[in-house]
Amino acid sequence: MPLTLSRKIDNLGYGRVKRRQGNEAVLEGTMSFRDAFRDMLDSIKTPYNECIEYLKKNMKLDPYFVEFYKWSRENNVPIVVLSSGMVPVISALFETLLGGEPDDHLYIVANQVESRDGKDINSEGGWQIKYHDDSHFGHDKSLEIKPYAALPDSVRPTLLYAGDGVSDLSAAAETDLLFAKKGKDLVTFCEREKIPFTLFESWESILATTKDILSGKVSVKDVAHDGLEAVHKGANKN
Q1: Domain locations in the chain as residue ranges
Q2: The organism sits in which domain of life (predicted)?
Q3: DSSP assignment letter at 199
Q4: H/E stretch holding 80
Q5: N or C: which end of the chain has fewer CB within 10 A?
Q6: Which of 199, 196, 159 is nearest to 175 (CA)?
């Protein structure tokens, strides 16, 4: 659900123009994600419970994510949602959009919600984000990935990561295969930093690629190589 918080800021906060300015400042290195994101969320004065209801009514899962979710459950492939969002918000949306509480193969690692200055979070301006860690990201997603990457080859899992925005920058170089959404900020960052990635437009291609990797039809190295070739040929510009 990469658009969840963007939609919330655009429609309940100070709007798309200022949000984009914040994202660009993070990309350019003139502002930390932690500070930029807090500024964005602080522009939302809507009570917490009303924010949840707004998102439930207006959000949809990425195309084919439900298929990916069901396939991963049937094939014992864990899904870890590393998010710059907030656990209660993400959990509530999954329960609504999946038709119930997610199964045990889906884990959420994200920030929390807390009261602002002792106020009721369901009052106007009463809530704020409580960051997961002390990093300049607020939630440094790479810290969740590195312990798995450091495991011995005999038990180390294959690490696939899908992202689209500035909150994914820290994780970009830590995974075996990075899926970056076409036309989004993560692609801009990866191209500039020369980090290999594979473009995606929906979870349909992620599902197909993951199936091929699990079956042994293709290797992660081959997919990464093909993805880089596609980008060099201008796939992100179409």
Answers
A1: 1-61+79-137, 140-237
A2: Eukaryota
A3: E
A4: strand 79-86
A5: C
A6: 159
